[in-house]
Amino acid sequence: MRIEKHPILSFDRSSKITFTYNGEEIEAYEGDTIAAALHAAGVRVLGHSQELHRPRGFYCAIGNCSSCMMVVDGVPNVKTCVTEVKQGMKVETQVGKGVIK
Fold it and tell me: What is the reported pTM?
């Protein structure tokens, strides 16, 4: 699901890229955030709460909450709602607080 028309914003969808999410190839547009690209691909659960393990999705979209934190290219705790997707990027669901290597 993507916003196709907006009264104020315009979207440049001329450059498609691909990245992987949990090993699955996902198509996105250059300039998308990771969370927006995943949402457009039908991924609604981005993580789970720390204590009760309830599903978390695309929530604030401005980097204030922790609902969208994932492991990106091996780096944990990346806020995917404000991180631009890049060609070949490897995105993985984060379990718990993430493991720093």
Answer: 0.87
